[in-house]
Specification:
CATH superfamily of the largest domain: Hypothetical protein af1432
Distance between the termini: 75 Å
Length: 704
């Protein structure tokens, strides 16, 4: 158990006497504030903040972080206000304590929304001072170490939360030591039996491997010593959770995973790292394609090291990591090493800068996300640890998640570049936007003024920033489309009463919006377009009985013209595939807006019972775009006929969306094709060209 005297000895090793005195004063304040409170284990409550401060002291964190650790539960549990802490210990410490206090509700015991809301609070607190998350991680680490006193249900919830959120955050901040302890403790709480079995097997394997490990270490040390390198060679042990994850994801047995021997070589300088790499490659044969230089191109969390895999004696694979002492501290403590090494070294400053950039990215996502659940989903994507490294045409390196495409790259460059992206070049060749990128590629984005994000990008965009921005744009675009369409539908309904929206008085509109809890007219129009309010009933309510009876109204009401540019709130039925030139009618579907059907569609006949949801439609004279249509082609059973038909269709510049075949009999086959056409005239031209093929017997349009 941590004591204040033991902590005092640690503090004196790196803090000055004045700073040590401030930390001890915070402890005595917390001791008084928590007097009489006990933990579940029966210990005095103050042992918890003392232990949290001890964890941060081991990382050599600054005195203000340690004071905040001592006081982090005071506001929440004792009723002492933030202002009192500010007077006693200064505004910086008070802000840190307040930031951590707001996170104490993140226990995942309530609804998922509450969990997500609290995670948003954490992002905002981190943005003000990155040390907030470090104190929170230390707090969670001590709670995980004392998890055994809790009921199994609560312990499992906390363990799951730790593995889902806190361990990836520690990883993202480069705090590998904390991350590994989180994972092992969480694994033991969630799967105690599996953890015990793997732990027992690991202990047994360690005994069998000791002789070979010592032999390999001795060979490495001897070879490097002969070359005049003063190095430290450490045998790396895999931790329980990483073994379990590899066994599960790669479907390998425990013995297969343990067949690899891993060593870390610690040196004094970057130059020595590369010299040692040469010596190691001359000692054992390197495995092609397994060398990674994270010194020249650090990972997103600031991690730097040389990685290589060698084929050792008796064909044993050996993983080697080579790094300097500063890099070793960075790998273990990550952003906390910024306080450990008060130097101008590029690695420590780089880690701190990267962490701040990540937090700023979180803030941008939080502002653009529709709700807290969407935000936390994006953060989980962002915490995915595997990265690739690609280059801009000017040589700048960008880090992206594995599986990222040119769309992710475009948004990583700038949001405006992503929004106006139309094509890309990968290594100077034109490539599809959906092509997954590989490390080392040079990517150039081609943009066009007026271009907009495509909804299909969602299918292959993987980075949180890209997905958030695409969703944000489409939401705004959908609203604009909805308001425009809603206005046209309401105007048409009002025309039945020989009125229009522009003729309504401000009082009529204001009273209606107030009665139905709409903040503005656009909100009402959006709900009409989405099919949640019916335009005819809305028109009657707006007029309040002042208009004429629509049944007695003279003159024909013109149908709503469909232009093909309405966007997401006009959908074309998949059952009958209407195209320009077809007689059409619409059905107001809740949340989908207007669904366009052909007039004689069988499904539309079933919907006529709800006549108030039917909308008279017509095609606009200047209709734009391409529309899906299905053809059935009856052909002779001859080899290569599908290729002949597809070639004929492609020669007309028509896109084939889908193709399938069905045998009619031994002599003839049905070929069903879905393709994109402009209108009925275009379709007639295509059908005429298909009928001209010798082996084609019949071409018909599938109507339902």
């Amino acid at each position: 158990m941590q004591t204040i005297d033991a902590l005092d000895a640690t503090l004196r090793s790196y803090l000055n006497p004045e700073q040590t005195k401030h930390v001890k004063r915070a402890f005595y304040f917390a001791e008084q504030a928590h007097f009489g409170q006990v933990r579940r284990s029966g210990e005095e409550y103050v042992t918890h903040p003392l232990a949290v401060a001890g964890i941060l002291a081991d990382m050599h964190m600054d005195h203000q972080s340690l004071m905040a650790a001592m006081l982090h539960d005071v506001i929440e549990d004792t009723g002492i206000p933030k202002t009192a802490i500010g007077k006693q210990f200064g505004p910086t410490v008070a802000e840190l304590v307040d930031g951590v206090s707001k996170l104490t509700q993140m226990e995942f015991e309530t609804l998922e929304e509450r969990q997500a809301e609290n995670f948003q609070k954490m992002a905002l607190a981190m943005a003000r001072d990155i040390r907030v998350i470090l104190v929170k991680l230390a707090d969670r680490l001590h709670n995980m170490r004392t998890l055994g006193v809790l009921q199994s249900g609560k312990a499992r919830r906390i363990a799951r939360e730790t593995l889902d959120i806190y361990a990836p955050i520690a990883m993202r901040l480069g705090m590998n030591t904390v991350r590994m302890e989180f994972e092992d403790l969480g694994f033991k709480a969630l799967y105690p039996m599996r953890a015990r079995r793997i732990d027992a097997a690991l202990r047994s394997a360690r005994g069998h491997r000791k002789e070979l490990v010592d032999k390999i270490r001795h060979q490495i040390e001897t070879t490097l010593g002969q070359e005049g390198h003063d190095v430290e060679v450490i045998g790396r042990e895999k931790h329980l959770y990483s073994i379990y994850k590899k066994m599960k994801s790669k479907r390998k047995s425990f013995s297969e995973i343990m067949d690899i021997y891993a060593f870390r070589i610690i040196v004094d300088s970057v130059d020595t790292c590369y010299r040692v790499l040469g010596c190691i490659h001359s000692l054992y044969k390197p495995v092609p394609g397994e060398f990674k230089d994270y010194i020249a191109i650090p990972k997103a969390n600031g991690y730097q090291s040389l990685h290589t895999v060698l084929m050792g004696m008796h064909g044993v694979p050996i993983e080697i990591q080579i790094r300097t002492r500063e890099m070793e501290a960075m790998a273990n403590n990550g952003i906390a090493a910024h306080w450990l090494y008060k130097t101008d070294s590029q690695s420590t400053n780089g880690s701190h800068t990267r962490a701040r950039e990540w937090v700023q990215g979180l803030l941008e996502m939080q502002q653009r996300a529709g709700n807290s659940l969407e935000f936390i989903e994006n953060v989980k994507i962002d915490l995915f640890p595997d990265e690739i490294y690609v280059f801009t045409p000017k040589g700048r390196i960008l880090e992206l998640p594995r599986g990222a495409t040119a769309v992710d790259f475009a948004y990583a460059v700038h949001t405006d570049v992503g929004n106006s992206c139309v094509a890309c070049r990968i290594n100077r060749r034109l490539a599809p936007l959906s092509e997954p990128l590989q490390s080392g590629q040079t990517v150039e984005i081609l943009t066009a003024p007026g271009a907009t994000p495509n909804p299909s990008w969602f299918n292959y965009a993987v980075s949180a920033k890209a997905r958030t921005n695409i969703r944000h744009y489409l939401k705004n675009q959908t609203r604009d489309d909805s308001v425009t369409l809603g206005r046209r539908l309401l105007d048409r309904a009002l025309a039945a009463f020989e009125k229009s929206l522009d003729q309504l008085t401000a009082d009529q509109l204001g009273d209606y919006l107030q009665r139905h809890n709409y903040a503005q007219l656009d909100d009402l129009l959006e709900q009409i377009a989405r099919g949640n309010r019916l335009p005819a009933i809305t028109a009657q309510q707006l007029l309040g009985g002042l208009g004429a009876d629509p049944a007695l109204s003279g003159g024909d009401i013109l149908p709503v013209a469909i232009r093909g540019t309405e966007g997401f709130m006009v959908n074309y039925a998949r059952c009958c595939h209407p195209i320009p030139g077809d007689p059409i009618e619409g059905y107001l579907s809740s949340e989908k807006g207007v669904v366009v059907h052909r007039e004689r569609c069988k499904n539309l006949a079933d919907m006529r019972e709800k006549s108030e949801r039917l909308v008279a439609l017509r095609w606009d004279d200047l209709v734009e775009g391409e529309y899906s249509v299905e053809l059935r082609i009856e052909v002779e059973n001859r080899r290569g006929m599908i290729a002949v038909i597809a070639t004929r269709i492609n020669s007309m510049g028509v896109n084939i969306e889908k193709i399938s075949t069905e045998d009619k009999d031994y002599q003839f086959t049905y070929v069903d094709m879905e393709m994109m056409v402009r209108n009925r005239i275009h379709l007639a031209h295509i059908m005429k060209r298909l009928r001209a093929i010798n082996s084609v017997r019949k071409v018909t349009r599938i109507k339902n």
